[in-house]
Structure prediction request, 74 residues.
Amino acid sequence: MKSIQISLQMAQKVKEFVAITQDCPYEILLKSGKYIVDAKSILGIFSLDLSQPITVEVYADSCDELLEKLKAFK
Prediction:
């Protein structure tokens, strides 16, 4: 598992994030406080407090390409 912190404060950023994660065949979760949602679920993401940094947890052995794309959301 690998994790990074991102920020999704605008609706456009959420749409871009979901478009990137939907193409991944492995599990990706978002954590905000005590809440955990599927990173591929736009409704789940909007249920989080987007004013705070969010932790992305990727459950894959080789996800370097995804992590590189997610650097745009820091």
